Amino acid sequence: MTTVNLPSTLGAEATADSGFLGSVGAWLTTTDHKRIGRLFIGTATLWLLAFVGVGSLLGFERIDSKTLTFNEGMMTQLFAATKTLASFGVMIPLMLGLSLAIAPTQIGSRSVMFARNAMLGFFLWAIGSALVLSSLIANGGPGGGNAQMVDLYLLGLALAIMGLLASAVSVVATVLSARTAGTDLADVPSFSWAALIGSSSLVLTLPVTLGTLIYAAIDHHYTRIAFDGNMGIIKWLGWSMSQPQTFLYVIPAVGILAELAPAVARRAQPLRGGVFVGVGLISVALLGSVTQNVHGLAWTGTLADKAKSFVPYALFNLLPILGVVVVLGLALLALKSDSIKMIAPFVPAFLGGGMILTAMLGNAVQLVSSANLSGTVFEEAVLVYISYGTVLVAWAAIAFWGPALWGRMLPAKAVVGIGALGFVATVFAALPMYIAGFADQQADSIKDFDYSGPASLWNTVSTAGHALFAVCVIAAIVVAVKSFATGERVAGNPWIDGGAQ
Amino acid sequence: MTTAVDRVLPAGPTTAARHPLFIATGSVAAAGTMLMFGMLAVWFKFRDASPLRAGKNGKMIHDWLPADLKIPEVATNTLAITMVIAAIMGQWAVYSATRKDAQHTTLALFITGLIGVAAINAQVAIYKQMEAVLADGAYQTMFYAITGTMLVLICSGVAFSLVAAFRVLGGRVADRAVVTAHALYWYFLTTAFIALWFVVYVQK
After folding, report:
1. Binding-face residues of B in 141-160 toward A, CB within 8 A
2. With contact defined as beta carbons under 8 Å apart, do A172 and A164 qualify?
3. How far is CA A372 from the centre of its chain?
4. Segment holding A86, helix H or strand E
5. Predicted ipTM?
6. What are the CA-CA distances from residue A50 to residues A83, A94, A381, A467 (Å)?
7. What's A174's domain CATH number?
8. How confident is the model at residue B121 (pLDDT cuts 50, 70, 90)?
9. What backbone phi and psi angles, to 5 degrees, belong to A163?
10. How many Cβ atoms from other residues are within 10 Å of residue A357's Cβ?
11. Is residue A423 part of a domain?
């Protein structure tokens, strides 16, 4: 891991005597890449709370499939909220925020390229995602009853996507053009490479979502003929909120794991090129997702039929798994060292990486047609695994690079404790839904899913998992705010300099 | 053995970024290409799903373009040629900037912008001649969505041309980065428009 901690030369910095308003103004007009990244991370954490809260509510409502606690009409909005928030509120902005904050520092750049563009991206995303959430609350969104609020949802989502695209372009331009003199692209740290690949994937896939969104928005506002009105939104845009597209959103998370393993092993990553290839393999998913089709495996018919089904399935769903396995394998190879010194951030990173791999494997199983898992809660569980896993890795990254971003560090026990508890919560929230999926519990449904098996138990455990994850998120916020605001100041990065374990 | 501490780079001198504007414009062009081609893909999907009917020569064609709508071919073909000329003007600006010829660079950039305005005018003329009502059906909705998106992109190209032209007018003729990125952007606009022209206006 290489870091260069350079002061930003751009942007208005808050000074001690600038007061509260001056400080807020400085934050809102900043062009400091670390601040822009922190704004993304902080706002995404708020949406994460909303996402976990909605997950808990839905789980609670499903405990008893016969009686309804909440208004049934709300449920469509809640299901839409989980999908939208997971992708556009949590996974992409968290990873993009970390990329903006860390990648320039790693490659020796004083700032992110086109910092004002990145900041504009933050504003567009923040305003857009707030509009999305507001519209969902006001009976808008996919399947919403209020036509104006459905329009607002589409507008908000378009703004959010444009914002994420703008910031992603800044990350791509930074890694490609602002590396320190003499540093080839092959020499950049694993995380910067993953940030480049992840951001490039966003640049290539989000516009496709945006194009469909423009069609859907105009159609919904004027005719509601071609795109099935409010009911067609998820049908046409759902691919951007499900697998394999979400694999692209978490590419930087895999890069974080690849970055931490050599830091633990206290040696250079063996076969570094292999890590880069592994990260690149995950991005193959973009070829599948931009076709806006599900590439399942139907093992029927002639050999030619089987091959026709298997090739796209393997290419778009199995190859990304191979990419993660390669990175994990090489991370373990790096750990085969005599100089290992475990550091706290590695624990949530490793556990989160495991959750992401579990999600990818689950997706591969779900797409086998003979498994009959499509349309069941198994699909929802995949999204929970990948989004919660990403949050765990992001927690690890915040802890690991905290000293570089805030000049203070998180307590090791809190990092490990919250990471481990978050892992347990993720398993509780998602694993029962994997099982319930096999029992044919329908997705996006809160009632009438009687099946042979303890339906109530699975849904109770899942609800408890979501609630526990909410506790973890709140605990992480409290610990982070306290430590980064008033904790002991540190120089350098004690996690790799040997000052912390 | 190299330790992590050894591998921490010392703070170096300020790095001179290598072609950041060109790379960023390339990224935007890639995003714009995906946007337009993604929209064309959805267009194909709808066109292929439309029922078949007998065409003028008896050949079965998809009943996608409503019978009462006529594509004004003169205007659309002129628009396509206009876009190609805009790209050539953009490249002329690069040629002139390479030779530090401020006069011709400025002229080329202003002409590119002017051609962009002409393209916008031509598109508006197509709307007028077609008299398609947006709320009349799926074709009309999608037609306005895809051509409207292209129109917005052309507007951004005109803005780019004006910014680049005023920079050169301001004496920054040695700064070739903007002019080169500008040309790249117009190449993208021309490519995207030609694809749209072929699918929407020629193939119908």
Report:
1. 141-142, 144-146, 148-149
2. no
3. 27
4. none
5. 0.89
6. 12, 15, 18, 12
7. 1.20.210.10
8. very high
9. -65, -45
10. 19
11. yes
Question: What is the DSSP annotation of A22-37?
Answer: HHHHHHHT---HHHHH
pLDDT less than 70: residues of chain A: 1-18, 497-501
What is the distance between the alpha carbons of residues A476 and A471, in angstroms, rounded to a whole number? 8
CB atoms within 10 A of CB B77: 14
The answer to whether A277 touches A320, Cβ cutoff 8 Å, is: no
Contact A409, A487 (CB under 8 A): yes
Domain contains A19? no
**Would residue B86 count as lying in a domain?**
yes
From the list B14, B23, B145, the residue facing A176 with the nearest CB is B23
Total structural domains in chain B?
1
- Name the residue among B5, B17, B135 with its Cβ closest to that of A223: B135
- φ and ψ at residue A64, rounded to 5 degrees: -115, 110
Which structural domain range is residue B114 located in?
A: 22-202
Residue A14 covered by a domain: no
DSSP class of residue A180? P
- What's the pTM value of the predicted model, to 2 decimals? 0.91
Does any domain span residue B26?
Answer: yes
Q: B181: distance to nearest CA of chain A, Å?
A: 13
- All residues at 6 or more sequence positions from B6 whose CB lies less than 8 Å from its CB, including other chains: none
Q: Are the CB atoms for A154 and A132 separated by under 8 Å?
A: no
Q: What is the pLDDT of residues B15-65, one digit of tens each?
A: 667 888 999 999 999 999 999 999 999 999 988 888 887 777 777 777 788
Residue of B1, B34, B134, B188 to mutate, interface with A, max A Cβ within 10 Å: B34
Q: Using an 8 Å CB-CB cutoff, list chain A residues near B39.
A: 211-212, 214-215
Q: Is residue A18 part of a domain?
A: no
pLDDT per residue over B84-117, tens digit each?
999 999 999 999 999 988 899 999 999 999 999 9
For A207, the closest of B10, B23, B35 (CB atoms) is: B35
Question: Which residues face B62 on adjacent strands?
Answer: B52
Range of the domain at A67: 30-497
Residue A84: strand, helix, or coil? helix
CATH of the domain at B116: 1.20.120.80
User: How many domains is chain A built from?
Assistant: 1
Residue B8 falls within a domain, yes or no?
no
